[in-house]
Amino acid sequence: MGTINAAFGAIASALDADQSALSIVANNVANANTTGYTREIPNWRENPPVEVNGVLYGTGVTGTGPTSVRDNVLEERLSQQQQVASASGTRLSALDTLQALFPPDSGSSSSTAGDIGSDITNFFDSFSSLEANPADNALRQQVLSSGSLLASDISNAAASMTTQRSSLDQEASGITGQVNALTSAIAQLNQEIESATSTPDAGTLQDQREQDISQLSQLIGVNQVTTENSGLSITTTAGQVLVLGGKATPLTTGIQNGVTHFFVGATDVTSQFTSGGGQIGGYLAARDQDIPDALSALDQLAYGISTAVNAQNNSGTDLKGIEGTGTNSAHVAGAGTSPLYLFNEPMQVAGSALSMRVTMADPSQIAAAGYGNGTGDDSNAIAMANLANQPLTLPVATTSFSLVQNLSSATPIIPPGNTVTGTVNLYDSLGNTHALTVTYSNLGAGQWNYSMVLADRLTANTSFANQVSYTFGAGETVDPGTNFTITGATASGGTATVSVAGLTAGEAIGDASTGYVKALDDALATAGVTGVTVTNSGGVLTIAGATATGGSLIANPTASASANGTLQFNPSGNLTTPSTDVADITFSGLSAGAATLNLDWQLYGVGGASNITQTAAISAQRGESQNGSVLQGQIPIDAYASFVSQLGSTVSETQTENTAQTASVSQLQTQVNTLSGVNLNDEAASLQQFERSYQAASEVFTILNTVIASALNLGVQTAVS
Amino acid sequence: MRVDPSYVTNLSAALDQTQATEQQLTSELSSGVGVTSLDQNPIAAGKNVLLLNSMQQDDSFTQSSTMVQGQLQVADSALGSVVSQVTQAISIATGANNGTLNPAQWQAISNQLSGIRDEVASLANTSYQGQYIFGGSRTSTAPFTTSSGSPATTTYNGDETVNSLQTPNGQTIQLNLPGDQIFATSGANSVFAALNNLVADYAGGASVPTAVQDTQSLNTALNYVSQQRVTLDNSLTRLTAASDAVTNEKMQLTTAQTNLMQADLPQISTQLSLAETQQTALENVIAQLGSGSLFDKLT
After folding, report:
1. pTM, entire model
2. Residue spans of beta strands (DSSP E) within A573-713
């Protein structure tokens, strides 16, 4: 049978356990307002029984310490939602600043960007007014002043946007330090958690880690992977490792094309961050998407208005009777010696808004009259007023080039049946350079065939670790002039670099059994490189498993039929066919979103002499750039109206998104609080419960004490009590 | 069932939101403007740009129209005076062609007609705000000069350019008539040729039949001037009509623009009232919930 002493032991363990539980309740109440604290509950374990004479007797209870009440899945869900809400909140804040530049048009033309619509109307109206009295100096001055207001409002808006973009760039860059501090802290906590406990929960340490993850989620988009011993790995949303156990990989920055790029190790993770969430996602979305879009629309507006007004003014006669240099609608060229431009003439769309200004200082230079008319004529003023209703014309990617070659009289002479090549650099709509090769084949009797090939250098996409890809267009082929190399691990544990020169001209991308993919596989196999796979998916060539890659690929864009033709020279060596310049050569399928390239081959120079038989230096002229052209075909006021509607819609959509996401975060936070927060009512109840238990145990102890005393005194009242 | 112990914090966030709403609504009430940023109503913001554009075009046309009406009225008035002068010349010449006047009287008639011719030439050189209005596009040079001689010759120095004004809906209204189109320096319709011939006829003692024939020519030229004057009258009428139409359109556009952008006062007042009620309710709830916990009951 059990003994009194055993009962003493059992009840003493209960007193200990109750004290422990009261201590846990006290700690919960003490941390009721501590951010990130997870409430703890006491755990009890029945002591192992003892067997006396074949009968099992209980030996009391042991308090096994507190357990934090948390739901890891719920907390991770909250962290994910915080990332998207934080991104949309940051983006919304940037968009609010952006749209504040364009308050709804007040109807008065004033020095605010929001009145650009009124500025446009007043500017073109000033030409309408000039129709009434083309020689009136006050009306002419009005044209210049309304033009100046339009130009300064557009230019100031562009400057403000550029400044905001720069500011967002700095703010995004500034996050790096906070991210690195947090990832280091998480790595440190990982180590402490793993070494401190073998239980699934690490209590306060885990609370701290959750707090750090929560803060990190406000900053960047991350994924969490729980490992054994309560460890945790953190990666970017695209899988770049930031924290692995006790090791953190720092986030670094570098400047590319004037803006901050972010790197994990050597991998550029900027585009991942842009779509990944957190404040940085919001900053980058505004920096790389919203502001450039708005700026591009303003650039197009500024370019369209400036070039159209300049061209029209330059094809008229000013108040002094001086003609411009342009050609009017009747195909008559002006007799002027210098252009009559009202605005500074933009050379390309990009930057047009920022640089827009009125360069004409003398109002008499406004060419209200047409060519050949007196200065009281208003026909050109009408034409300029009508530009308000003309669609904006934006440049296509056109490059004029004159490829100078010495063919028939070349030294040494190229006999019939042989070829000679000439090259010239051309520019696409994005300003990228491409090498155009023209191959001339001598057919004899002064006749030559020509064939043009435009090499398009594809930029490697290395956003993913150990992987590089090139996006070819449909039907594009590989040029033999590639300088592409792959470095990969060999079976012997070393590395080898494979050069892929010497491929067949015009070779298709192919697959594992044909074309360029097979050639790459073969070259890798020859070099002993293992673990590298080459695939072609819809014109995207992907090389996975390479530890390092370098160089670029060259594809052949698709050319129009006129890229091939015949040249005929007369016995004197002069070009007779074609008799004019060739202006309809186009190349499509350029990489990275470049527009179709239009070529204007200037076969004939000044005075009609053929360039082909001359031996002067090879020259090329840079073409105009064109980005997007979202406003192409719209009249100026409609272009501005759609711009403000678009901007407003973007802000409104982001606002709606953010409201929904914030509500979702709030809901998840409520769920987390409901589960893990300290509820004082519950704690009061627990306190009451444990106090009662303690009191009961004390009573039992007292009674046992009395029983022992009676036993010791053998039922007689003595000194022992 | 467990509840979120920090619900009071959530309630205070809701209170903040309510107060922000009240602030926005109060701002709209006080300013009367319903769309203060693009995101509030992107479509309205875009339409607002287009409506203002049309309204400003109307305003601009009204101003130009006023300016041009002055010029057209001056031109019309000048041609009216020309008609009076030429009518008087015909009357004088007709009186002189009865064959009863002596050479001295013919000379006096010649002098009278010469004065009328000079007056007509002066009217043909009428300017408005420093610009000659009958010289086509050559507005800085006097359109007509008369040389001495018998008969004298009147030369046109202008060109054939016709200026016009476009209305906001694209109509074109002619603003001027080239001088030689009205007065014609030679030919059957030429006022100056007829007048110069008559002056020479009476000064040089030409035969009555010649003078009669030249008087008939002047009559023909007068009719021609009157016909040309109708063109300018038509322009004035069209300009007035266009101006009235534009004024009406502006009123309609203003109403539309006001309706588009102004605050909807009854709706805002209702929303404000609801927000205030919500705020009061939230404050009461927070006050009640903040009273304590079960710990208050422990003894």
Report:
1. 0.73
2. 575-577, 582-588, 597-601, 619-620
